[in-house]
Specification:
By secondary structure, the protein is mostly helical. It is built from six helices and no strands.
Length: about 190
């Protein structure tokens, strides 16, 4: 131990000063053992922190890319499903229209054939009214009005009844179209004039 008298001695201060300056010079050079150990420890901590940060960044990028690819696949699947659904719906509507048109054409040809065969009369000579067969059509959607419907005029109302039209068709089919007098006489007879 150093005595209190020796602490006040200027040579002691010079000694302490020289030791401190030596320690400081060694520290600046990087060769001080305690300083070097502490610097190495800090460098290890820094390297670990940088490594963890890089790993975290890579993990986040991988997650973001995976989520992007999954969401893109999901959107593409939804798009294809919607596209196929729309295609199927359009094909069904076209098939329904085709069937309706075919049924209307068949019904019209059946009605025309029947009117040509017996003039729309049964075996006793009484007038028979034939209805067209029609598939149940869905009720019109009143909430949506199409431009085509808005541009159409009022519906055509026929003055003649269906049985009168069929009778006229029958008469026309039986008469010679070259002789207008026979046609007029047949009309008068048919209507009771």
């Amino acid at each position: 131990m150093v005595s209190p008298k020796s602490r006040l001695n200027p040579s002691y201060f010079l000694y302490l000063f020289s030791v401190m300056s030596l320690i400081l010079r060694i520290a600046y050079e990087g060769s001080h053992p305690i300083f070097s150990d502490r610097v190495q420890e800090l460098e290890r901590d820094r390297d670990e922190c940088i490594l963890r940060a890089n790993l975290w960044r890579d993990y986040q990028l991988a997650c973001a890319e995976t989520m992007y690819h999954l969401e893109r696949e999901q959107v593409e699947q939804e798009y294809l499903a919607e596209k196929n659904g729309l295609k199927e719906k359009m094909l069904q509507q076209i098939d329904e229209r085709r069937k309706r048109l075919k049924e209307d054409r068949d019904a019209l040809s059946i009605d025309n054939d029947a009117s040509m065969d017996n003039g729309g009369r049964n075996a006793n000579g009484a007038a028979v009214r034939k209805l067209r067969r029609r598939v149940q059509e869905p009720a019109p959607d009143t909430t949506r009005t199409s431009k085509r419907r808005q541009q159409q005029g009022p519906p055509v109302q026929l003055a003649l009844k269906e049985n009168e039209i069929l009778e006229d068709l029958f008469i026309l089919s039986k008469l010679d179209s070259a002789n207008p007098r026979k046609m007029a006489r047949a009309r008068k007879m048919n209507r009771g004039y």
